[in-house]
Each structure stands twice: as structure tokens, then as C-alpha cells.
Amino acid sequence: MARSSRLLAATSVVVGAALALTACSSSSDDSGGSGGSGAAGPVTLEFWGWATGLEDAVALWNEENPDIQVDFFRMTGDDGDKIPAAIDNGTAPDVVQMSVHSIPSHVIANRLTDLTEYVGDLEDDFTDASWANVTFDGSTYAVPQDFGPNALMYRSDIFEQHGLTVPTTWDEYLETARALKAADPNLYIAQMSPNETGYWIADVWQNEGSWFGIDGDAWTVDVNDEASQEVAERWQTLLDEDLVKVVDMWTPEYWAEINAGTIATINYAAWFPAMLEANAADLAGSWSVAPSPVYEAGSTAAGAGDSSVDVIPTGTEDVAQAAQFLTWLNTSEESLDILVGENSMFPAALSGLQSDALHQPNAYFGGQVVNDVFAEAAENVPASWVDGPVYDLVQDTIKDEFAKVGNGAQTFEQALDAAAEYARTQLEQQGLNVK
Amino acid sequence: MTTATATAVRRTPRRRPRAGGGQRRAPYLFLAPFLVLFAVFTMAPIVLAVYSSFFQTKRSGLGFGGEGEVVFAGLDNYVRALSNDGFVAGFGRVLGYGVVQVPVMLGLALVLALLFDTALVRWKPFFQLSVFMPYAVPSVVAALIWGFLYQPRVSPIVEGLRSVGWDVSFLSPDVVLWSLANVAVWSVTGVNMVILFSALQSVPREIYEAARIDGASELRTALSIKIPMIMPSLTLTFLFSIIGTMQLFNEPMTMRAVTSNISGDYTPNMAIFQATTLGGDVNLGSAMAVVLGLVIFVLSLVVQGVSRRRNGADR
Questions:
Q1: Could A19 and B289 be called an inter-chain contact, meaning their C-beta atoms sit closer than 8 Å?
Q2: CA A80 vs CA A97, B148, B271, B277, B278: distances in Å
Q3: Pairing status of strand A43-49 against strand A95-99
Q4: Nearest residue on chain B to A83, judged by CA atoms?
Q5: Residue A165 has what DSSP assignment?
């Protein structure tokens, strides 16, 4: 232990020092204006990404575009952590896939190319919510790639067994949860996972809330705003009445609970069915998908969690070509056929949502065309969510605060207040305007 | 290099001050590669960290478009570090952990080393290897394995205890620190045992013989002869253990994947990681790292001071 942790500490100091060094020098290579010149002659772009099937899409592109060749590198594990250092050191690839939530902090650190003039007119090709996520203060910094709208996955066998109907509003959901508990005290309507903020974000997003906002030239911190408090109230009731099982997501314990059949619904993202199938194969045929319950009867608003985007780091010389490639990759029929059809990516592009490839029966869900539900949800996600500069820190804080909620040491409301206060302080310490 | 060999080969024909100087230079030449690497990979990062801890990047408005301005911040980062509840609480946590884990682990290592040193134990290499083996397991893997063994519903241990009516929760907020300590004890007892054992081996056998002739029991010999004889090694392992404790990172970081009861700033090193990697605030992280380094430095001095005085008094 002693040896390896010291090594790690030493490395982090070195890395820290390297970052400090480059923070001073990175300003020199941001003026590479050659991007717009559309230099003649073939160029080769380096592309780091992780979505399955990107290799195939890139191969097709390379075949059709001899002048703009793309070298694809598959990111694994902690490769994502290398990106900031790589950009700051000028060794970054020309195109990178990243989590949508990291955009603002990278823009502030001057790591992303403003793509407004290259891809600004793609707005109508994407869902409102996914486009809103890549646009800040009138500038577009990324091209949306995939998206994760929520729908309610539920154990139709359990619902049937106890004569329950699928809830359409959150009030009904609460009633269903109570009925389930009454029918069998070992059953929970859902799980509460302090370590998975995607759940929380989706619920707040569906309620047209956000963690951050932009008001003039100032950030707003909305972690504990009204929309969030409403969500908090509902979760608090679920927790207080022991209607949800507190278990950290992605752990072996979580999958054991799912497989044991103690969790009856999962209101989660479009990419989750594949994980469910992989980790609970024995439950094939037991699940169905319905639209997420809503806050007001008649509303169609859906939530969404994590999604990924493609960006062009500062320092990239062939911005125009890279943007051309990204436009093709994420909006063209050829590319989406590969990514969506053969590789089950859930696309951010509207054309992808309408593609036949997406709407195929899912055997695990007993032949239901589950993506019908998810695709409709995707178009109904409000364009309300705004990511902020200290997203990662806030997310980490929320996790830690929610852990205390899960232990009964505090309420959701207190957790949100603490996280909001933390976010505000962080922004102020960076000298940013906060309202 | 060439001058060094040259002077070494030529037997100084006459007493010349120069020749002596060349020979005195030789060790430095051989040390040079180390010194260069030491300067580049140890001293330079420390200097840079200290330097960077006095600066801050200031931005304005939304922070978009403009370059951040790096300004001298004096001790501001240190004030921020020390007023960061999570960071400070982390020190309390690792200290509490160390106070329990280090004595337990070293005690175990010492007892095992003493047992192996007696003539009574057979199959010595086998037992020694089994105690040492966990050290060969990378700490991240160790934490993963134990994390699995701590989780309800999947752990045979938890389920086994539950079946006999003992409902334990290894990952609950009050217990998780000791579950981490258990992993560390499992991992590093073996290597400390080896260090202490080899120290015991170097004690001249005649002393034991003399003790035996004087009628001392094995226990008496252990307490009055063996332990005092290996005191320097004990001090060394103690020092390393304390440093390791303060720098606790891998195990809690890994175990965090299975329980949210380990916060992102659970230990000082994790708080530094959080500030730099998630928060992108290298300056604050540097200040925290300097604080951690100073605390370890002071603790090491205290341990060495105490042990030196103890040794002095014994003689």
C-alpha cells in the first residue's frame, strides 16, 4: 500500500506541476486561424471516442473522403482524464468524444473551439434538448452524438401479479409504490442510488429544472431551486416510507437486487436496456417499457441524463474539415445506420430517432419496440438543462450529500442546500460572476 | 566518466593536490545520474507545487472567451485548503485510522516474525509466503476483492454471518473506515513481517544461546532480547506505515465504487485529487499537497525523535 500510494501521489504532483506549467503556455496556440482556410490537399484527423461502431463509421468516411482521412483511437478506462492535459499540452487529437456535462469547464479553460460558424446551422437536425446542451451564450461548442432520454422500465410480471396499473403521474407512482409495499414488503418500487446522479438529473430535467443557468453575464446556481425541491420532496417521501431500496448503482449488490426481483421499476436512460439485458439475462420477458410518469397529468415532458458530444479541441488546425466530418458522423443517414442500426447507439439527431434501425422489436422486452417510447421521450425532453463550470465537483458533492440522505443523516432538501452553497462558493472562487 | 576512469587507473605518482581532487570527484560523477533524476522528478515538482500554490487563476463574467488571468494570491490557497472542511476532516480520518491500523498491523507482523524466528515452526517458507502473498496483490485489486466481500447479497461472509444471526454492515458510514483498515492490514502485514524477520535473522545466534543457558523462556527472549535488537527495523516500518497511512488513496478510491459512504474527499490525498482533477484547480491542489507533505514531514520527525531518544535511553 505504502509504496503504490506514494507513487501515485508523486505522479499526481508531477501531473499537477505539468498542468501548472502548461496553464501558462497554452495561450500561445489558440490563435491557429488556419482552420477556416480550408487548406488544399489531404489532411489526417485524429479522433478519440468510445461509442461502439465508431470504427465502422470512420472506415466508411475514409473510403468516401480521400482528402480528409480520420485516424480513430478507441478510448478506454481513464483515457478521458488525459484529455484536459492533452489539450493544454497541444498534443490533443483533432476530434474528441466527451461527456456533454464537461463542456463549460473546458470552454472556460479555453480548450474547445467555438464551432458556431461551422455547425451552427445544424440546430434543426437535433432535438431541442440536445442542441441546448451544446450551446452557451449564443455559441456552439460541440456536436451532439448520443442522448439518454428516460422511460419507465417496469417488471410487467410483478405488476400483473399484484394487479397494479402502470403509473402515468408521479402521484400515481407514489400510490403504486405503497400498494406494492402492502402487497409484498420485500418489494420496492425503485432503488435510491446515492452514487448515480443521472437519476437525479433526469428527474430535475423533466421538471424543467437545471443545476446551472446563465443570466446575462452571470451564472446562476439552481441546484436547490423550486423544480429540484419538488423532486426532493417526492424522493423524501419514497425514502421515509421505505418504498425505495437504498443501494449504490453499478455494484454487484445492485445487480443482485435486480436479479432477485426486489426492484419493480427503473426510470432510466435509453441506453440502459442493453445493460439490463447484459446483467440480468434471466429476467428476459419480465420487463416492459412505458413513458416516465409526469408531474402534471397531460404533460409529456421526459427527463434525460448523461449524453455524449464530439468537440474539436483548441489547437486543431483543420477545424473546417473536422466539422465536416462531425456533421457527417452525427447527422448523415449512412453514419447513423451504422451507429444506430448495428451498434445500438441512441442518437441525438432527429433523423436518427426516426430511422427504422432504431425501431426494432427488443427480444429482451418480450418483443416490445421499446425505442418507440424512448424516441418519443427524446423529443419531449425540455430544453431547460444547462451545465455549469464546476459540474464535476457539484456532482461529486451531490453524491456525498445523498449518501448521508441514504443513511438517514439528513434530508434531500438539506443535501441540495449544501451542494448549492458549495457550487456557489466554487464559482465565486474562480472569480466568475454568480447571481 | 573518462576523467574518472583515467584518474582511477593512474596510480598517483606524486602527491599532487589535483589527483586527490579527481578521486573525490568520482563518486559525484557516479551519483550524477541519480541526482539529475532526483532533481527533475522529485525536487522540481516540489518546487513547482510550492510555486503554484501561491497563484490563482482569476476569470470574469461567465468565464467564456477570455483567458484566465494568473495572479499572485499569497497564502489565499492555503487559507482555502485549511478552511475546506472535507480536506481537514480527511486528516482526522487518516489519523484515527492510523492510530488503530498501524499498531494492529505492526503488532501482527512482529508476532508473526517472532513466531517464524523460533525453531518450533515447521514449513516456514510456506507460511511465510502465504503471509507475504497479499502484498503481491495490487492495492486496487485488493480493495476490489474486499469490496466484493463486504457487500450484502453477494458476499459469502455477510450472508454467512447473517445466517447465524449477526447482521453486519461492513460498508456503513461508521464501519467503512475499519473495513478499509482491514484491507490494509491484510495487504501489508506480510511485507513488514519480512522486514522484521530478516532483522531477527541478523541477530547473532550466540546471544540467544546465552539467554537459553541463562534459563530464559522463548517469551522472555523475545521481549528482552529480540525486540530491543530489532528496534531500528521496527522504527523504520513504523515510519513507513505512518507515511503510507497519511497518503491513503488507492483503497478508499477503489472501494468508493461499491459504496457511497466513502466521500470524494475521504482522505487528504483524495481531496487533492478532487480539487485538481474534478475541480481543475491546480493551485488549490498544490497548496493542499504542500500541507499534506508538511504534516508527513513533521510526523516523521516526531517518530524519529522519539525513537532516537528511546534508543539513547536504552543504552
A1: no
A2: 9, 26, 20, 11, 12
A3: parallel
A4: B277
A5: P
Scan residues 202-221 of A and list those with Cβ closer than 8 Å to B.
214, 217-219
Q: pLDDT tens, B197-238?
A: 999 998 888 888 898 899 888 888 888 889 999 999 999 999
Closest CA to B191 of B227, B237, B154, B236: B237
Pairwise CA distance, residues A220 & A306, whole Å: 21
- Expressed in angstroms, the distance from the first to the final Cα of chain A is 45
DSSP state of B203: S
Q: Any residues with CB less than 8 A from the CB of A204 and at least 6 apart, and which?
A: A210, A211, A227, A228, A231, A303, A385
Residue A136 is nearest to which of B42, B64, B263, comparing CB atoms? B64
Q: Beta strands A139-140 and A135-136: pairing type?
A: antiparallel
Q: What is the Cβ-side half-sphere exposure of residue B83, based on CA atoms within 13 angstroms?
A: 8
- What's the average pLDDT block by block, 10 residues per block, for chain A (435 residues)? 38 41 37 42 92 94 95 84 87 93 91 94 94 93 96 97 96 97 96 95 96 94 96 97 96 95 96 94 97 95 93 94 96 94 90 93 96 96 94 94 96 97 91 90
H helices present in A263-390, as ranges: 272-279, 319-331, 333-336, 350-354, 370-379
Query: For chain B, how long is the longest CA-to-CA vector?
Result: 88
For residues B266 and B90, is the Cβ–Cβ distance under 8 A? yes
pLDDT at A18: 42
Smallest Cα distance from A425 to chain B, Å: 11
Listing DSSP states for A356-402 in one string gives TTTS--BGGGTTB-HHHHHHHHHHTS-TT----TTHHHHHHHHHHHH
What is the pTM (predicted TM-score) of this model? 0.86
Q: What pLDDT sits at residue B177? A: 95
Residue B10 has pLDDT above 70, yes or no: no
pLDDT for res B212: 87
d(CA A197, CA A76): 22
Q: What is the predicted ipTM? A: 0.83
| Listed residue (A4, A18, A19, A397) closest to B247, CA to CA | A4
Q: What is the mean pLDDT of chain A?
A: 89
Interchain proximity B139–A13, CB inside 8 Å: no
Q: For residue A218, which amino acid is it? A: A
pLDDT of amino acid A5: 39
Residue type, A224: N
Angle in degrees, CA B69, B72, B78, rounded to 5: 115
- Please give the DSSP secondary-structure letter assigned to residue A292: P
Q: Which residue in A107, A251, A433 is closest to B258 by CB distance?
A: A251
Q: Find the residue in B nearest to A104 (Cα).
A: B64
Q: Are A112 and A81 in contact (CB under 8 A)?
A: no
CA-wise closest residue to B188 among B231, B117, B124, B240: B240
Sign of CA dihedral A55, A61, A63, A67: negative
Question: Using CA atoms, how far apart are residues B75 and A348, in angstroms rounded to an integer?
Answer: 47
Minimal CA separation from A396 to chain B, in Å: 6
Residue carrying C-alpha cell 451552427: A120
Q: Which positions in chain A touch B273 (Cβ < 8 Å)?
A: 12
Q: Which three cell numbers mark A53?
A: 461502431
Name the 3-class secondary structure at A211.
Answer: coil
Question: With a CB-CB cutoff of 8 Å, which residues 246-275 of chain B face chain A?
Answer: 247-251, 257-261, 263-265, 269, 272-274
* Chain pair A-B, CB pairs under 8 angstroms: 178
Phi and psi for A112 in degrees, rounded to 5? -115, 140
Give residue-wise pLDDT tens across range B122-140.
Answer: 788 888 889 899 999 998 9
